[in-house]
User: What shape does this take?
Amino acid sequence: MDTIQNRISVCTTALILFSLVFSGCGAGGKGLFRLRAENWQPEPGGSIRATDLEDPIDLEEVLGLRGDENFWVYGIEGDLGIGTYEVTNIDYSSIGSSTLASPIEFSGESFENDLQSDFQVAVSTYRSKGALLGVGPIMVKYIWGVDHLVLDTTLTGEFGGSPVTANQIIDEWVPSFGLGARFSTPIGNNWSLDLDGEVAGLWVSYGDIDGTYEGLTLRAGIRQGNGMLIGVGHRSLVIDVIDDGTGTSADVDIGGSYAFLEWAF
Assistant: This one.
């Protein structure tokens, strides 16, 4: 419970600070503020590379990462009079183990035989949303803001009988842009059906980062009055980037379904 309260406090503070900088036409839902918790079970896929002199390392086949864990994703969205703002925090981690068929290189170190891996992805999004078009129960919205991406990979193993450990981190702030759509209609006495979809990211080079970063979120739920919304959805992160400064690259696709609960007040 303390962890949840701490995350909500951090998200609320960031949301208020963010509202002082960015503005837009409101594109929110019920209530003034909406707190959301998602129980996400993603599957990892793709590869990583510490330098451009090394071969890509597959997350599943080589590192032994699996999608058998659930993670909590927390978000807060608010309509503050001058626009709709959202802060979301995603923390994904996976620990894998494997026996290498042949030696590999990562971050200047060589590994053979048994390998332990610790792969972590943290994405924090700070976004403004505005209404582009509204037709009946359907609203099309624009999205823009800034996202913080952190990919942290640690490998532990041996080479030539000696223990070896290597770590590599991609840590970048990038602007993000996107579009979304929302549909809401009554389905009974004091109940409504809510559908929401958003895609946002960066599809051009920025700073030292070349490549593609994209986040997709789909949600479907049933809301009671103006309060609780419960439902299911799908969330995916595609991070296909190269750091020109270090040669570190990641071609990672993490996606999966989730159940969620949202409180509007």
Observations:
- The chain has one domain: 2-264.
- Residues 44 and 254 are 5 Å apart (CA to CA).
- The chain has a mean pLDDT of 87.
